[in-house]
Amino acid sequence: MIVRRVVTGRDSRGKSVIVHDGTPPWSKDFEHTPGFASSFVWATCSDVKADATDPTEVATSIVPGPGGSSFLIVTFPPDSVMTNPTFNPEAAGREHAEESPGLVDCFEPDAPGMHTTPTVDYGIVLEGELCLELDDGKTVHLKKHNVVVQNGTRHAWRNSSSSPAKMAFVLIGQTHKAPSRVP
């Protein structure tokens, strides 16, 4: 998955300029999970100035801390990739740990795909179809242009179709737990 990222900034006179036009530093087509791809497009955090360096080059985690944010684009292959007899979950797990620091720590080893992040996430389906699975086993079928607001709850993404699905995610680090119910 090639993502073009255009980043603006200011020159020495304070005029707006393009400071980057190309692929994000953390952009990967995964070898051990064919069809899975991820681009860590941008991040904000309290220790990096907005006009300083590229925060994705100095970030140590995809999951933002309180008050920070991360912007990701992820392509999910069909679930059949993971059920194929040639799929090696150990090799895939090592690759995900290396390429998705912080995020992989949120996944549950005994419940494949299930995870909880200390973030509020805005997810937008860009291409294809996915199911959002919640911890009660209920699923919500999502199509292109559907939007999900994920309030720090346990969930998994499932692609039961025969085609890849692509989503854009903005993760916002929280300082408190999300509400347990809607008033």
Describe the fold and architecture.
With 183 residues, this protein is mainly beta. Helices cover 10% and strands 38% of the residues. It contains 3 helices and 11 strands, in the order ββββαβααββββββ. It has helices at residues 55-58, 80-83, 89-99; strands spanning 5-10, 16-22, 26-29, 37-44, 69-76, 119-127, 130-134, 139-142, 147-151, 155-158, 165-173. The strands form 3 sheets. Strands 3-4-5-11-6-9 form a 6-stranded antiparallel β-sheet. A 3-stranded antiparallel β-sheet has the order 8-7-10, with no helix packed on it. The N and C termini lie far apart (40 Å). The mean pLDDT is 88.
Short note summarizing the structure:
By secondary structure, the protein is mainly beta.
Highlighted features:
single chain; 183 residues; mainly beta; six-stranded antiparallel sheet; three-stranded antiparallel sheet; 3 helices; 10% helix
Structural class: mainly beta
Mean pLDDT equals 88
Largest sheet: 6 strands, antiparallel
Order of helices and strands: EEEEHEHHEEEEEE
Distance between the termini: 40 Å
The share of residues in extended strands comes to 35-45%
How many helices? The count is 3
Low-confidence stretches: none
Which strand order spans the largest sheet, edge to edge or round the barrel? Answer: 3-4-5-11-6-9
List the helices and strands and how they pair.
Layout: E1 5-10, E2 16-22, E3 26-29, E4 37-44, H1 55-58, E5 69-76, H2 80-83, H3 89-99, E6 119-127, E7 130-134, E8 139-142, E9 147-151, E10 155-158, E11 165-173
Antiparallel strand pairs: 1-2, 3-4, 4-5, 5-11, 6-9, 6-11, 7-8, 7-10
